[in-house]
Design brief:
About 30% of the residues lie in helices and about 15% in strands. The radius of gyration is 45 Å and the shape is elongated. The chain is an alpha/beta fold and about 450 residues long. Strand 9, helix 9 and strand 10 form a beta-alpha-beta unit. Among the domains are: about 160 residues, 3-Layer(aba) Sandwich (Rossmann fold); about 140 residues, Rossmann fold (3-Layer(aba) Sandwich). The chain is built from eleven helices and 13 strands.
Length: about 450
């Protein structure tokens, strides 16, 4: 396992996180490799001389074998001078006849002795060598596991990171394509060191997915080309699209925040509500504006105060900001950062959680929470990775962020705390929720700083 110096990591066993918000089961992991079919060797048949080793579909025909020469023609028989002399000494009356017969006999004898030369046998054409059969490339082996490295720039207890870990946990239960999904997380990764961390994790071969939960597009851009089979994901505003095997995902929970605002606007007794947040960042501004719009939809007289503590994680400062708002009259506080509920408990006012259901943390205070669901966005990236690994289709991330809103399953409101929230308030919230899901109520996405 690649471990970032200065960071804390935990591997899935029975659980990966001691915080009660997240748990992950352990899965085993294996990798798949692919082997190219070996080259073929062709052999020439009889009368074909193989010239060399050859590759697929590259055949050398060679040379003909040598053949035997033509048969040597028979020689004419030679007559001797002695035989000729004997014929001249014949003085009998039959000489003329004998001479004629002798000449005729010699001629016939010569013809009989002459051997006719047969035409040379025709050499059969060499047998043509059949082209070697091409061996089909092996089918890619479908993967069975997905090991996820989750990288966070801050403490893993932050609700933003918790919401992603919850989504990964739900995906592990769903097991798309039968994959066993396990998660190992790395917290407090500084941006200046993020490229090295991404590179080391990718080069380790221990992870099929590396998910950076922040503005890590620069780090991913520097690493992704060296590891084309690794699925890279980065999340949130402030990033750039990269395409290929790098996917930009995002979520805006302005619609669930609108519903929590409906509850807050009906529950406040002072007509003043508050928000304690980290930075005026688009992913933070949008739910704040949604929350205020929901409260005003049921209570036009409501006033509000927003405090940015200028830190992603500082519970002590958050508690101080919440106490100041309470002192100014706010009696329902939207807690985008941790530390707010402690002040609310001490003062006896209400609170609303963000991104994950936190009612269990302060059941005497928390009315409800927004819930961010990254499941669908992450599953889109898994689909692309699977298609590459199982079917050979290269990943091709869109040149825009992948994002699902509440009507598409990208978020929701947590169950209302029935011990605190009256029935009429619950009914109003449920009515507005149904309208959002049906499309009858459209909540504007406003990521500008709240005013």
């Amino acid at each position: 396992m690649a471990t970032a110096p200065g960071s804390r990591t935990r591997r899935s066993s029975s659980t990966v996180i001691t915080d009660p918000l997240v748990s992950n089961r352990s899965q085993t992991v294996s990798c798949s490799t692919f082997i190219r079919a070996p080259f073929l060797r062709a052999f020439a048949p009889e009368c074909i001389i193989a010239e060399s080793d050859i590759a697929e579909s590259d055949i050398e025909t060679g040379r003909r074998c040598p053949r035997a020469g033509h048969p040597t023609p028979s020689k004419y028989p030679l007559r001797t001078r002695e035989g000729t002399k004997k014929m001249r000494l014949l003085r009998t009356p039959l000489l003329s006849l004998a001479l004629v017969l002798a000449v005729l006999g010699a001629a016939c004898g010569d013809d009989a002795a002459t051997t006719t030369t047969a035409a040379p046998a025709t050499t059969a054409a060499p047998t043509t060598t059949a082209a070697p059969t091409t061996t089909a490339a092996p089918e890619p082996e479908a993967p069975s596991v997905m090991r996820v490295a989750f990288i966070a720039p801050g403490p893993i207890d932050d609700p933003w990171y918790q919401s992603m870990l919850h989504s990964l946990e739900r995906l592990a239960e769903k097991a798309p394509y039968g994959l066993e999904i396990s998660t190992e997380w790395f917290e407090n990764i500084e941006y200046g060191d993020s490229e090295r961390i991404f590179r080391d994790l990718a080069a380790s071969g221990n992870f099929e997915m590396i998910l950076g939960s922040s503005t890590y597009s620069d780090a991913v851009s520097a690493v992704m080309g060296d590891h084309p089979d690794v699925l890279f994901i980065y999340a949130g505003s402030g990033n750039d699209p990269l395409g290929g095997n790098a996917f930009w995902i995002d979520t805006f929970i302005h619609e669930p925040a609108y519903l929590t605002g409906v509850a807050a606007g009906m529950m406040t007794e002072t007509d003043k509500i508050g928000v304690v947040a980290n930075f005026p960042f688009p992913n933070v501004n949008a739910p704040i504006n949604g929350y205020l719009a929901g409260a005003r939809s049921v209570n036009p007289d409501v006033d509000f105060e927003v405090t940015f503590i200028e830190s992603w994680w500082d519970p002590a400062t958050a508690k101080e900001a919440a106490a100041a708002q309470i002192a100014a009259g706010a009696d329902v506080l939207y807690a985008i950062v941790f530390g707010v509920f402690e002040a609310a408990e001490e003062a006896g006012v209400y609170g609303v959680g963000d991104l994950v259901d936190v009612q269990f943390l302060a059941p005497d205070v928390v009315l409800t929470s927004t819930v961010a669901k990254w499941d669908q966005a992450i599953e889109v990236t898994i689909d692309a990775w699977w298609d590459q690994m199982a079917n050979g289709v290269p990943m091709n991330a869109p040149m825009e962020r992948i994002m699902f809103h509440m009507p598409q399953g990208g978020g929701d409101i947590a169950p209302l705390n029935e011990a605190l929230v009256p029935a009429d308030v619950r009914d109003k919230v449920h009515e507005a929720r149904d309208q959002i899901l049906s499309g009858d109520l459209v909540v504007d996405l406003n990521d500008a700083p709240p005013e």
